[in-house]
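Possible regression after last week's pipeline update?

I re-ran a chain I had predicted before the update to compare outputs. Posting the input and the new output here so someone can diff against the archived version. Not blocking, just want to make sure nothing changed silently.
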Amino acid sequence: MFKNPLLSGSLFVLCLSFLLASNKENAAQKQIKADYFDPKHLGRGQTIPITIAGSKFSSVKSVTFLPAEELTVGEYKLVQGNPNAQPPSYKSYEIPISISRDAALGKRTLLIETPEGQIKKQIEIVHHVPVISDLKITHSHPGAKYVPPAIHCNFIAFDEADDLGKKPEIIAELGPQAFGGTSVLIKASKLEVMDEPHKVKVHVIYDPSLIPFATNGNFRVGIRDKNGYRRNLLAGKVFQ
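New output (post-update):
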């Protein structure tokens, strides 16, 4: 039987091209890790910014959810941190996510594509999460070199289910980077009931001596309800 050498050569080139394309696609799906990712719970009927940060990716190309129903990804942006406190390769992105009121409860897979590979995270859609705002740092100043004095602050919390409790758990962070410092869990010192329904002013006293290293003053604080759900952290500057 006669075999056309040109046809055989074309078939070889076609197969080789397919293999190269497959390898390229697999390389694009390489899994990489983020140094910081927050929050992990998204409440129905809210728009919540997710922060992702690290030094293993240079930019964010696309953001998708599986399944994607009832979730809308907004315009994500690069958040500039303190260039003196983090390497140039460290990037922080803020990704706003809008969740519809009738979104199905449960876990979703979040896929973030970068030039260096894919970041894969699990997000949980919950009935509600506390909404916090208006962080005010009322007292802070430098103390001893590695043991600064207490930080006094307050912020407003809105919780439609009123399930924060009398002394809810507070997440407090101090760290040399804009995101991803060392976290500690403490109790709120006082809740002040406000005139508007479901709103309270949360007072916090935080002892930075719990952190075993110096800080450049980046401070973040958040709150958990009784279910352990929380939204994003509020950021402020102390010891300036």
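Follow-up from reviewer: compared with the archived run. The mean pLDDT is 80. Marking as no regression found.
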